[in-house]
Every structure is written in C-alpha cells, then in structure tokens.
Amino acid sequence: MASKIILNDVEKKVVQLLKKTADFIENGHNTNAPIEVRLAGGWVRDKLLGLSSDDLDVTLNKINGIDFAKAILEYVNKLDPKAAVPYKKSIGKLTVNPDQSKHLETATLSLYGLDIDFVGLREETYDDKSRIPTVRQGTIETDTYRRDFTVNSLFFNIRSEQVEDITKRGFADLRNKNLVTPISPVRSFLEDPLRILRGLRFASKFSFSLDPSLHDAIQNLGVQKAFKIKVSRERVGEELEKMLRGPNPDLSLHLIYSSHVSSFMFGPVPEEKREVPKRATESATYLFDYFQENFSRLPSLSDDDRFSIWLFTALLPWAHQSIIQKKKLIHIPAVIAKDNLKLNNHAITQLNMNCLYADVFDTLANDLTKASRCELGNIIRQIGKNWPIVILSSALYSYCKQQDAQLPSVFQRFSDLYKLIYDQNLQKSYELKPLLDGKQIIEQMEIKPGPELKTIMEQMISWQFENPEGTVNDLIAYLRSLKNIIEQK
C-alpha cells in the first residue's frame, strides 16, 4: 500500500484544472472563500492500493455540483481554452439531477476523457422503511461518517494534494485490509442493509477481512429484519452476481457462509449439509485449473459458464432437493435463484439442468463400462451445447455428497467420462439430425400420425447413436423390423 497518492498525467491535469477553477470562483464570484475541493471515496482507496481508477467523485463545500461544473466550463472557454482536450467542445456534457434541492444539485462532466461527478458535502438521515436517505447540506465530518466503510471515507485534498483521514483509522484499515464501518455497524446496517452485501463484495474483491464487529452486527435481529424490508430481492441477486463474476468468487462464498449472510440471501442450510459450502468452494477453486490442465479438449469457459458453475456451487447444499411445479421437476436451487435472487431465466434454466443431471453423470462416471454410446449421446442431446458445464457441476456434486471422497480421484473419474465422450465423437450429439423426418417414417412404416410417432423418432435417434456409420437404407430396414415386432405384440 502506498503512503501517498501518485497522480498520472491525466489526473494531474484534472487536479490543476480543479484548483484553477476554485481560484477563479473565489476571485470573481463573491464566494465565501476558501472553496474546499476534494476527490473522494473509491478513487482514493484504489490509488493508495496501487490500482488504476477512473471513477472520480469531487466533493465541494460552499458551492453545489452544478455551479462548480458550470464554472469549469466558463473558466476553460473564457480564460484557458488549452485546458480542454482536444477542443473546447470536448469538455463534455453537463448532466443535472433535477430532483434534488438547489444546494445539493449534482453534475457529471467529461474532462480529459474522464466522467467526473461533482457534489456538495452532505448529511444523510434514514427512516425505517427505506435505504434511500433524506439528504441535506453537510460538512466534511458528516460526509465522512455517512459513508459505508472507513476505507471508502478517505479524501484527497486538491489544494494540499494530501490524503485526509477524518475517521483516524481509514489508513490503518486499508493497510491492514480490515473492513469496518465509520460508525456503529449495527446503526450503519440498520440505515442501509445493502452495505452488508457491498461489504462482502469489497472484502472478496480486495481480499480484505470483515472486522469482528461486522460479524456481530449481521447477527442482530433488527439488522436482519431491516435487510428483508429495505433490500429488494433483485438487488440481492445483482450483488451475488457481481461477487461470483468478480476476481475472487471463492472468497465471496466463504464470506457469505462464514458470516451467515447465506441464511437471508438463500435460506437456512439443511442441517445435514452444513459442511457442503466449505467443500464446494474448495473443490470449485480447484476444478477449473484441474480440467484445463488435464484435458486439453475442454472448451474455453466464458464468463457466463464460470458464473453458472459458481452459482451451482453457491447453492449446492440444496441440490438434492426438488419439487414439482406445473408438472415439471424443479430443483430447489432453481427455486432460490428465481424467488430469492430474481436471476434471469437463462441462469435459472442452466442451474436446474446442472441439478437435474448431477446424479446421472455421477452414476456414469462411477462405472464407464456401463456408459453406452446410445445413452451418452441421448443425454448430451437432451442437455444441449452446455453439457460440459453440467459435467463440471456434476463433479462438484459428486465430491460434496461423499464426505470421505478424495478430490483428485473424483475429478479423474469425470475427466475420464469427458474423454470418453470425445473419443466416441459424441461432443456434438445435440446437433445430430434424424436421417428420416416424420413424414418419411409414416410412409416407410405405414402408420398414422400420433403419439406412437414420437416414440419411434426417439428409437430412431438411439439407433443412429448405436450405428454411427449406418445409412438411410439400414435405418429403413431397422424401422421395418421394428414394425414387425410391434405388430406381433
């Protein structure tokens, strides 16, 4: 962690322009000097961590965001046209939030290719029903203590070019990778319970630890009640998706379960599955590297593929449970994804597919001698092109349901199954086209359209898997023999 912020060339230009604009306002606009201009929040945190950041938020005293942004445009256009890059027009578009009172008006301005938000210092108050605060003009102190975590409450003073740590612990918490709120965590989470999920996401992204006080606050019944009232299920799903698509999804799941946030994100973990989250997370971390290193024919996994597997991992404690909905078998993880997380239909469908075929692939992987070409082909045809995702998920399922299972041996079994599918050229079984269509079958077998036709079509596909070199004439001969058998019955 750096002890001070080192500005890059673009940031230096931005800082100089902000300084000159503040001087310009003080000298010509009869303002109560001095105007304090600071960069705030995530940009300060990231710069101290040695990370690049283009998320610039400017806080101001004695002037609102829109008036300061207008002053920048006035200063550049009248006095310093060279400050615009490359032309005056490129200074950018001013965006105003019309719903706020005059002294809290905010603006977004594009400077040197960066979209910068300008806002006055503020104070926030909350009620019991909403996490959206009532905002009024504040001070540097109120603006600091309204923020979610101490590591996000640091400021970079434009005049002194020094970092200001109003809480007196932001630096230390950042250095120690400790996530804690600037005020009582119970009060902070009661005001905005979404901070719980944001905290988990920050902690996993930066490999921080949650302060013990946060763990205690999460267990507070009032906080849990506020979470249910103030945080929408859609937002819960959005935050989970950000975590699972982030750089450390394994740490995200560890934090979700170790902090017991899982109970009000997903639901209570079945008693007999208490150890599953830990085993699932550890095995998923190992899974990707193992299959990429040991089986070169595994297709490159997309971000969506990885998300599907991590989502399955997150909900593995419920993978063995299912219900019937509208005459369809729906596994509980898919119900949680739909009702508790409000995820999109694609994610829910893939999750249910992973659960539906987990036991099927586990059985096949246990004894490859019983895995016929016909059975494998039909299964892959039913699943579709995402069958590799289902097999990888099944490997996790298999490991987690056996407490004494050894991870390498489990993954080896599924790697062998994967190899068998390719060796038998079944990897694109979902693209297999019937050699005869329904009309041709009716003509060849001299049958009438009806339910019987569907059964015969399925038998025909199975025959094609069993006879990959078979011709149309071979198939017709098979169908006629099939007809004779049916007639004899």
TrEMBL record:
The Poly A polymerase head domain, residue ranges: 38-179
Swiss-Prot/TrEMBL GO biological process terms: mitochondrial tRNA 3'-end processing; tRNA 3'-terminal CCA addition
Entry GO terms, CC: mitochondrion
Pfam families the UniProt entry points to: PolyA_pol
Annotated family: Belongs to the tRNA nucleotidyltransferase/poly(A) polymerase family.
Stated name of the protein: ATP(CTP) tRNA nucleotidyltransferase
Single GO MF annotation: tRNA binding
Alphabetized UniProt keyword annotations: RNA-binding, Transferase
